[in-house]
Amino acid sequence: MAFAAVKADGSVVIWGDAEYGGNFSAVAALLTEGVVQICGAFMAFAAVKADGTVAPFLTEGVVQVCGAAKAFAAGDARYGGNSSAVAPLLTEGVVHISGTDEAFAAIKADGSVVTWGDARYGGNSSAVAPLLTEGVHSSESELQGLIGMVKEKCEELSRHQFGNFVVQHLFEHQASCRPDLLKPLLCKMSELAMHRTASHVVQSALYHCEEEGQKDIVESLLRATYPSPAIEQVAMGRYGSYVAEQLATLPSSWVQSVDLKQRLKSSLVELCAAENGFGRRVAEKFGLVDCVPLQQPKAQAPDI
């Protein structure tokens, strides 16, 4: 893991595992001043400077950066981190960058679009290149229209291997949309928490929603009944356990008031006995492991 902090003087402090972006020695000189925003991805960081440059992706005229799942425009080349093939097109006039799992698309001020990264994830736009030479814009009205479409299919997109990133992005950056995004998810919250991609959406909602939304999520998980998985099953699940761990980071005062910790404590033996170890990890997050009763040693058969 790695962290990056922007100081009041515009300088940046980086620390953590170098493999995950914690080593910025190659661009340290560029991060001593003028940094206005830091964005993090799976194995990389991107820093936006006040003069419109981006480090470590060194182009001019960039005014906004959005992340992909595994890299920004710097980092592992397999995930869109290498833009050298289109570098001449990215030296000026870029007004917006969006990312998928392993590719990026940049909209320029003249309305043209530049793409790079893995072709399977949208990095190769040659098939529609003639349509992308001009006239592509991202207006507020178009944005609101897209948000409306996402709201209508929020659950479906949350379960989609790529669509879930769109929902996560809206939870993070569109505060006014969060209640409408959350509403259709609440009735199936425990199922989503156990899903490979939708669990990330649940975590994003827990992190970005206001306290009222967080309470709605917790209460929905606690109310789940068969055939939906109960909170204890969520805590022992491969993906659900990460959601359950995040619940432990919520304000302790109201987590106690909804009996979440007590509910998990009542199933503590089962949580800690699960062979996959996920349940025990959740119990540790809630500080419950010390409550596990010691198992009595089995009596040995008498010698004959």
Automatic annotation (TrEMBL):
UniProt keyword list: Repeat
One term under GO cellular component: cytoplasm
Entry GO MF terms: mRNA binding
Pfam families: PUF
Domain of life according to the entry: Eukaryota
UniProt-listed InterPro entries: ARM-like (IPR011989), ARM-type_fold (IPR016024), Pumilio_RNA-bd_rpt (IPR001313), RCC1/BLIP-II (IPR009091)
Pumilio repeats: from-to residues: 184-219
Any single biological process term in GO: post-transcriptional regulation of gene expression
UniProt name for this protein: PUM-HD domain-containing protein
Species: Polarella glacialis (Dinoflagellate)
